[in-house]
Structure formats: C-alpha cells, structure tokens
Amino acid sequence: MSETTSASEENKLPLNGRRAIPPNYSNDEENEVPEMEAFGLIPRGFNPRDYLRVVDIYMFKEPQEINKKEHHTDKYYNPKLIVRRGQAFQIQIDFNRPYKPETDQFWLEFLMGRYPQQNKGTYIPVTVGNVLKPGQWGAKIIHRENDSIRLSIMSSATCIIGKFRLYVAVLTPYGILRTRRNSATDTYILFNPWCQLDAVYMDDEKERQEYVLNDVGVVFHGNVEDVKSRSWSYGQFEENILDACLFLMDKAELELSGRGNPIKICRVASAVINSRDENGVIAGSWNNSYDYGVAPSAWTGSVDILLEYYSSKQPVRYGQCWVFAGVFNTFLRCLGIPARLITNYSSAHDNNANLRLDLFLDDEGKVDTRLTKDSVWNYHCWNEAWMTRPDLPVGFGGWQVVDGTPQETSDGMYRCGPASVQAIKHGHVCFQFDAPFVYAEVNSDIFYTRMEKNGAQVVEKIDTTHIGQLIVTKEVGGDGMVDITEEYKFREGSDEERLALETAVMYGVKKQSVQDTTYQPQTDVDMDFQAQKAVLGSDFKVTITFRNKSGNSYTVTTYLSGNIVFYTGVTKSEFKKHSFSAKLEPSSSSSFNIVIKSSEYMSELLEQASFHFFVTARINETGRILALQKAVMLEIPSLRIKTKGELVAGKEASVVVEFTNPLKQTLENVTLRLEGPGVLRTIKKQFGRIPMNSTLTWEVKFFPMRPGLRKLIASLNADALRHVYGELNVQIQKP
Which family does the record claim for this protein (predicted)? Predict the structure, then answer.
C-alpha cells in the first residue's frame, strides 16, 4: 500500500479472527503519521505557529562526524545515520525560538513498519530527561544555544534492528504537533558488539575489527593434505548492501518485533540464504552445468549476488558451500553480528545422523557404487556467529554454527543452526538447533563393509579419524589459517572424546555399536597410499606401499580405482582402473608405482580438479581386505595481478591481470572478474579463447575510492578450467 491511501481504505484492513492487526514483517512499508493530532475540537483562533515549532533536525550523519565515528559505522556507503544499539548518539534540533524547559514539552518518536506498536518495539517514544541510563531508551539535552538544542540519545541494548523513521512531537493545549515525514532523518540501528549489554558483545577489540569490520576474508578449500585458499570480498559496507540485508529479513517474513534477537535472525537467515524453500538468495548447483547463470567458482565476493537479488527478487544462479557461507558472512557482519567462515575438511554428509558412513565393497573388495549412499565432502564451509544463548544453560554462548547450504531439512525447511560449538564439543546435542547434524559432520566413522554373496555384511575396516580431521578459519588480523579443530572435538582417542560421544549417544545421536556386526581388525599388513604433487594437465604417479609385519609370506591382489569427484565426494566418473598382484615378503615393505596420465583425466575433469582414489587389497592366504581412500587435488595455475604507478584515492589508476594457459588445449568461453571492496566495483570481461601456452593480458582503469590497505581479487572461468584466482594487497594513498 502506498502512503496516499485514503481514510476509508485504511479502515478496511483484511479481517482476521486471530489478530487485530496484520503481521508486521516489512521494514520498508510505512504508515501515515498526522502532523496535527487533535485532542478534540480545535478553537477557531488556534494558530500552530504560536507554539514551539521544529525548523530543522541535524543528524551528524557524515562519515567524519561524531556519530558514525563513535559507532564504528563510518565505513558504510550510506548517506543516512547508522548507529549501534545501547550506545548514545547525538542530534541537533533547531526551533523557531529558544526552547523554554518550564513551559515547552517535546519528545522524539522512532517508528518502524506499517503498524507501529509500543509493546512490539516498533513505536518508541523517547522523552527528554536529566540522566541517561545505560542500555535503555532516553534523551538528554547536552547543549543549548539560541534557538537550538543538542540531544544525546541512548537506545536500548535489546532494541530491534533495522531502519527507523524519526519524528519530533511538540505538545500544545489542543493537540500534538509533529514534524513532517522526512527520509533524511531515517536512522538505522544495528547490533553492537562494543556494548556489554548487547547479546553479541565481544570483548576483544582485535576480534571485533576482524569479525565485524573486516570486509575481506579467506576461504580455505582443497583437501586436508593440500589446503588451498582464496580471498572473498564480503563488502558489507558497499552501497545498498545494508538495505539488501534488511530486505532478506522481510523476505524471510521475520516479524519486526523478533529482529532484536540474533538467534532468530540467524535461524531465518540460514533458510533465506538458499533458494530451496522460499525463493531465497542463491540457487545451489553441484552438477557442473551452469547454464543461464554464473559458475560458483567465478564469484569473487558477495556484493554482486546480494545486489542482484535485491533488485530482481529472484534466486541468483549458482552457488556451492563457500558461496552460501560468504554471503551469509556478509549478512551477519553487515547487521553487526560478529561472524567468521569455517572450513571442515573431510566433512560427513550423513543422510541419517547415525555417526556412521557406510562404504560398501563387493566380494572382490571393489567399491559398490550402487549401495554406497553416504558421501564425504572434501571440505564443507559454514559460518559461526557470536552471541549469548539465554535459551540454553549457562556455558553454551559464544560461537554458534549456522549453515546456509541446503543439505537437510530442519523443522521442515532447509536451514541449519544456530548450534553451540561448545555443545557440539561436549556431545550435548540435545540443545537446539540442529546440533546432532553438525556433530555427525565432524565426528562420523567410516565403515568399509563387504557384502557377501549370501547377504551377510562383514565390516573390514573402521576409520575413526578420517572425518572432521581439520577444521579451520582465517586468523585474526592476517590471511593465515588457524586450526580450530579442538574447539569442536577433543583429541582423537582421549577419554574426554569417548565421554562426549557417550553423551551424544545418550541424547539421541544414533550410533551402531561394532558388536552389531562381525568385525576383526586386520593387523598383519599395513597399506599406505601417496600421490605426487601434480599440476593440472600433467602426468603424475601414485604409490601404494605395503608393510608386512608378520613372519608369513603373503600374496595380495590390489585394485586401484581413480574417480573424478565433485568436492562433495560424489563420483562423476571412474577414469582409472588398475589391478595387480604382488608378493609380500615377511617383515618387509614393498612399494608399487602407478602412473596417471593427463590424457586419462583431462576430458572428464570437473572444476575443482579433484580426484578420489579407492585402494582395496585382498590378502589371498587369509581372505582379509585392506581398504583406503584418499582425495588428491591438482595444482591450478594462478592469475597474476599488478598495478601501474602509485595508487591515490580519487585519482585514475590502472591494474593489469595476466594468465598463461598451461593446458594442452585451447580455453574457450573465458570470463574474468575483478573486484576490491573500497577500491573498485566488480568488473567483468569476456574473452573468446586462449590458445595453449599463450598469455592473456587485461588492463583495467579505475578510480580507487578509499585510502588504506585494500585487496584486489580476480577470478578466471572457462569451460575447461575453473577455480583460477589471483589477489593483490594494495596500499592506496591519501590524495
């Protein structure tokens, strides 16, 4: 409805027997506020000009002025006042004459949404008093001069966040006079990690700088033996991003009155980040075909995705886990909730939360792809958000797992979290939300189970250490990696780990005991598998080593299966089959090399250049089976970025991106993207093709926006080659 609705229409609200007013979940909609609210009949001689009247309101909203500086909101590209809750800010009111406290009476009104109500926190009258109480709404005069007064206004530390409309109301004997609707005085109120009374309070300044104010981050990918990293531009301060993030809460239909609660905001956001339920922000695609959209690996940051969604209101194509997590991180930091992006290596995607992933082998020891349903993701990215958990017992506040990647439904929707990291570590998975699912992602065991011809299942091997063996995030204040595995789990094999597992099982995580199946571990012979470091497009060798610890001679029949996999562990195709027999002498080691040729894998390769090798070996004399699996990543060449001359804010500069095609084939449909928060908005360029061994050079002219240390991030995408990145730290001088 527009603001010009006539009075008769206004009274015809849709009737609903349950509630007197319709649901209020749009921050954008407004109601009409009368400029003169009469108490009754107004006498003929009444002239509003005889009373105190507001001539102008000054919000101190420029980035260099007191409010944005003190509230750490000076980086937002947004002309309006942005403050954080539970902390005082200042405004100046100019009246038509000097203010007389003895006789004049005025107050402020902050309104949000179409149906403002005081008990819902969407209508907030603020009276002027002598003292400000911490964390409660109030205002006091701190300076009077001529016809002007300066007010210090304190907002509540639990106030709802979003965009408020501001009115000044003056009391006269015959009614209330209000200022006219003026969007220039709109005030955004955000979460405040600097305020001890706020649910998202964080006490370390370096951490606040990183988890709230840093607009660039690092995504760790690859696999546990070959960790790779790339930068991601969060861009939470860029133009229109704050409005786009508020729109996400409207889209998720979160009642305005619930928007002061970070738990609720995280839960609805984890559903609206993906498009599975309510046409959310990003459509996921894991099948290597990205028609009518952008390949997940091509994105360099969140800004393009959020702005496209904000304008089109349709899901943006396409994302995979790090894209969901990158956009979610932008959303959280933008609203003021401290957040970080997490990578869990060898992440269990277990379809029934029984802490057990089954890999089925046939009676020869080869993997049976028909029966094997569970998958191990090379890595999976999610987010942690920092907040207190008053809904849980003491001790479970702090970092909470939230995950916007659609994997499983939770209460009927694709969403996950917030789940307390502390609760996951100690096995207290009874505490909401979705803790059993996250517990399984980091703690499952892999069962190698052989199906005999009569249908009996024999467990040949249980791997208890493969899943969740490394959990990492970016370090505070740098681009390095921090291992946070110990925040999620106790050391493998420790007493505490067993106790946490028993607790999780007690609280309903299903765990099949080994007693349910026949299992005798095989101890005579050890098998190991190593792969040579390899660059995309070249041949490489893999080595299988047996160590016979017994005094017997054995012969083994060995199968190697090389598969091209999605990073989710799902096989696309088997590109290498190799089997051999070997003799193992007593108490000795033997190694066997197998060459993997580029011609065998290049035609089938997927974008993350990742292989999965299964090795199974049968000891012919005992019938026992050895099994191993390993992910292998190829080295993908990088983009080179360099700048010409010195970079000065506001002056034209130029940057050059170069790439040499290393493949034995021409690259077709090449797209380059370049962006840098605070430096330049995303620029895209398409190139038809790059022949083998030739170098592409792209020069971009731009005007750096802000001085300081910034980062440029580039990506290259082609039909045969994805996940090519480059980055450069640049120092931009003051003009």
Answer: Belongs to the transglutaminase superfamily. Transglutaminase family.
